[in-house]
Amino acid sequence: MPGGPLNMPRRTSQMLRFVVVGGSIAGVACAYALQEAGHQVLVVEQGDGRCDSHGGIRSPPNMTRLLNHWGLGPAIARVSVKANRFTFRDGKSGEELGPLVLHEKLMNALAADFLYMQEVVSVDPWKGVVITRKGAKLSADVIIGADGYRSVVRPVVVGPEGMKGVLDKRVSVNITVPTDLMRQHKDLVQLTVSPEWSIWLGNDCAMHGLLTVDPRSSKKEYGIVMHVPTDGKPAHNSWAQSQPLDEKFLKLDRFEPRIQKLVRLAQTMTPTGHIIHEPFDNWVHEGGKVVLVGEAAHPLMPNGSHNAAMSIEDAMTLSTLFSLPASKSHTSVLLSAYEELRQPRCAATQASELRKRNFICLPLGPEQQTRDDAEEEFLRDTWEEYIDLFAFDAREAVEDWWTKWGPAISRPRMSDSRIESVVATSASGYFAGSGSMSAFAGSRTK
Fold first, then answer.
1. Other beta carbons within 10 Å of 163
2. Tens digits of residue pLDDT in 302-348
3. Which of 58, 85, 147, 412 has a CA 20 to 30 Å removed from the CA of 25?
C-alpha cells in the first residue's frame, strides 16, 4: 500500500555536503530530507525568511503521504481543510454540472542551516561553487538549484534556452476573502462551512474556490483562483505582488451574481503570469555537481493542483536516493537516476495541468457545448486522471529503481563509469517496462 515502510538499506558513511540555492518549498524540503539522511546541508536564500503571501497550497494525496512520512501530519491537520469533493458549476448561472466525490476510504488508501539575505549571482558547475552578490564562495559536493520560476541555476544546467518560452494566453489570479465577511451575506454562508472544492466554468475563463486556513491567525479564509485571458497584456510573474481588485481585468461580469459579490469582498488580487516551457532535456549538469528541483526544473502553471506536490516529490526522490548505501563516487549515478525518475512524471503533470485548465476555460461555442453535454464522460476521465496522479509514491519509485540497479552499484568489481553508462542507456527501457510509470506517462504526454 502507498506510504508503507520500504525495504531499502541506508547509507551510513561517505556523507556529502549540499548547498541548496533557494529557500523555496522544494529547497526547504530537500534540505530537511537530506539532513535527516545524515548529509551536511546549507540553504542560501536571498529573502529574509518571512512570507507575506495569502491563499492556500493544495496538498493532494501524493504530497500528503510524503509529508506524513516526515511526521508532519498533525501540523498539517491544524492548518488545513480537507476537501471532500469537486463540484463543477456553470459560471454564469451557478448551476451544478456534476460532482467528483473524494470517497474517504479511497483517499485513505492512497495514503539545515540557512543563510538569509544572500543572493546567488553565479554557479561554477565544474568546481561545485556558489558565489553570492556579497562575494561569498560556498563549495559543495552537490549544488541543488531550488530557486524557482526565475532560476539563476537553471541556465547553468539547461543553457540559455532554459529562460525562453511562450507567454501563456491566460493569467492566474489569487484572491482571498475572510470568512467573517462572507458570513454577513446569507447566500455566501454555505461556502464558509462546506469542504467541497467548487469550480465555476465561465466564458473563456474559470474560477475555483475552497476553504483555507491562515497559519498565522488560524482563521479560515476562502481561497479563490481565477483564470482569465491576458488580452495581450503581460502580467507579473511573481506570486508576492498584490494590487487593487480590478473587476474588468477579472471578467467578473461573466460569473453569477453570488460570485461577483464574493470577489468584491476582497481588497486585493495577485495576478501571476506564466511562460510555458517545453520539458527540459537536462536537470543535471554534465559535471555531475549541479541538479535542478522544483520550479527551477519544471515550471508549472501558477496556482495549479500539483505545484507544491511535484516539489515535495522531487525532494523525497533525491533524498531517498542519497540515503541509499552508495559511495561518494556514485554521486553522478544517483543524480542521473533522479533525473530519469522525475522527468517523465513532471512532464506529464505539466501537460495535464495546462490541459485541464484550458478545458474548463473554453469560450462559448460548439467545443464548450460539447464539453457540457458530455459532462459524465468528462467527470469520469478527470477522476481517472486524478487517481493516477494521486496514487504515485515517490519512495516506491526509488525502491523499484534500487531493486534493479542496487546490486550493480553494490558490486565492487563494477566501475562507476560502467554503472552510469548502463543505467543511462537502460533508463528508457526501465520506464517502458514499469507498469504504473508507462501507464501514467502514456495517458498524459502531449
1. 14
2. 888 788 889 999 999 999 999 998 889 999 999 999 999 999 999 99
3. 85
Q: Which helix (H) or strand (E) holds 122?
A: strand 120-124
Residue 93 corresponds to which cell in the numbers above?
448561472
Q: Which residues pair with 198 in a beta bridge?
A: 87, 209
**Burial grade of 390 (CB within 10 A; 0-12, 13-18, 19 or more):** buried
What's the whole-model pTM score?
0.80
The SS3 call for residue 206 is: strand
Alpha-helical segments (H) within 361-434:
366-373, 375-391, 394-410, 416-433
Q: What is the pLDDT of residue 125?
A: 96
Q: Which three cell numbers stand for residue 237?
A: 510573474
82-113 pLDDT per residue, tens: 655 556 566 676 776 554 444 454 345 434 56
pLDDT tens-digit series, residues 195-229: 888 889 999 999 999 888 887 777 889 999 999 99
Per the structure block, which three cell numbers stand in for 1? 500500500
Which residues contact residue 421 at a Cβ distance below 8 angstroms, ignoring those fewer than 6 apart?
none
Q: Is the CA virtual torsion 342, 348, 354, 357 positive or negative?
A: negative
Evaluated on CA atoms 301, 302, 306, 308, the torsion sign reads positive
Side chain identity at residue 36, one-letter code: E
Q: Mapping DSSP to helix (H, G, I), strand (E, B) and coil, where does residue 358 land?
A: helix
Spatial contact of 259 and 295, defined as CB atoms under 8 Å apart: no
Residue with cell 534493479: 404
Helices (H), 159-293: 179-182, 257-264
Give the residue among 170, 176, 171 at the shortest CA–CA distance from 268.
Answer: 176
| pLDDT attached to residue 343 | 97
